[in-house]
Structure formats: structure tokens, C-alpha cells
Amino acid sequence: xxxxxxxxxxxxxxxxxxxxxxxxxxxxxxxxxxxxxxxxxxxxxxxxxxxxxxxxxxxxxxxxxxxxxxxxxxxxxxxxxxxxxxxxxxx
Length: 91
Known about the structure:
Layout: E1 14-17, E2 21-22, H1 23-30, H2 34-42, H3 45-48, E3 55-56, H4 58-67, E4 74-77
Parallel strand pairs: 1-4
Antiparallel strand pairs: 2-3
Helix pairs in contact: 1-2
């Protein structure tokens, strides 16, 4: 398992749990500047809902992961997710 804050090797998968995330943490997962990440999230603002405090709630993170395409090497781990519904890239 690889830490999301390290640089990635194209053959190595990065496992990311569904949990509370700050905007900058989401930007690191998506490998983009936090300002671009904010613009990407704002496109789905109505579906995601308001920010509570400084971080996104797990339910909001699930929506973000579904709406904004993840990098190929990122695999989302969600212990409450039905195994038939995958967050893998491209699904």
C-alpha cells in the first residue's frame, strides 16, 4: 500500500480510504493544485453539499470520487460500499 503523499510509480497502486479530507488532501490525491481542485468540486456543488468546517465529510468524498475522475493508479477503499459498485478508475 502506498501513502498518498509520496510520488507515484506508474505500476504501483495508491489505496485511498473514504474519510474526512481537507481540500488540499483531495488535491494531492488527484495530483492537482488545490485551486483547480476547488473549481472541479464547485461544478458539483449542489450534489456535494456545503463544506462543514474545513473538511469534506465521507459522504461528500464519495460523491467527489464518483464525479471527478481519479488518476489511474488510485483505488478507493470504502468499507461501507457495496462490493458490486466500484470506485476504480474508469467505472
